[in-house]
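Preliminary data (for renewal application), cytidine-5'-monophosphate complex.
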Amino acid sequence: MKTGLIAALDTTDPQRARAWATAIAPHCGMLKLGLEFYLANGAAGVRLIDDRPVFLDLKLHDIPNTVAGGVRAILPLAPHFLTLHASGGAAMIAAAREAAETAGPGRPFLLAVTVLTSFDAETLHSTGVAGGPRQQVLRLARLALDAGADGLVCSPHEVAMLRDALGDGPELVVPGIRPAGSAKGDQVRTMTPAEAAAAGASWLVVGRPITGAANPAAAAAAIQAELAA
Ligand code: C5P
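Predicted structure:
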């Protein structure tokens, strides 16, 4: 399986995001814009960044009717990937898929976030979930895919388990990647690009190791080279 690279442009500053996009886009498969960028700059900001489809990481979670309306509202931006929370339930995901389908064959692909990587067993218990994180990830992954999600966002340490359980079909999009020797920041359980690719990731999401590098283009190119090796 070929693993692609997604660069996360995490900033509220549209000029900075644009400069990163210009430098990095030739060395990655896709650019990711998150909640902070979208809330600060809206759809007009997204249009500034790149003329290629982007990954909009908005992690939608609301009643089905509202999420479907949100998906329809985002269709003119034609993102390649759009995220939503699997814990929103099957009806919410099915409504999002139905709304996405109205865009036709170039529709956004929906990625479901299962358990946030900032959660551990204790935080999960405090929200009323009895089982451990891996059990909950698998339960929500199955629920999301059955309801119409195209893939999942998961930690590198869940990729092998999800591939075993779900096969090669779903897109597995994986943050928490740190090239050997780079700072971990707030990511705790990381893997290198080569390790996550070997486990079965479809796409790797990499932010600060690229955007915080002295030469972001070179940092992205080095990760691409590691994936191609
Ligand atoms: O800078 P870093 O490489 O840690 O950035 C990872 C990106 O992936 C960030 O945009 C972060 O919001 C996102 N992400 C994550 N963990 C998740 C889901 C998304 O780190 N579970």
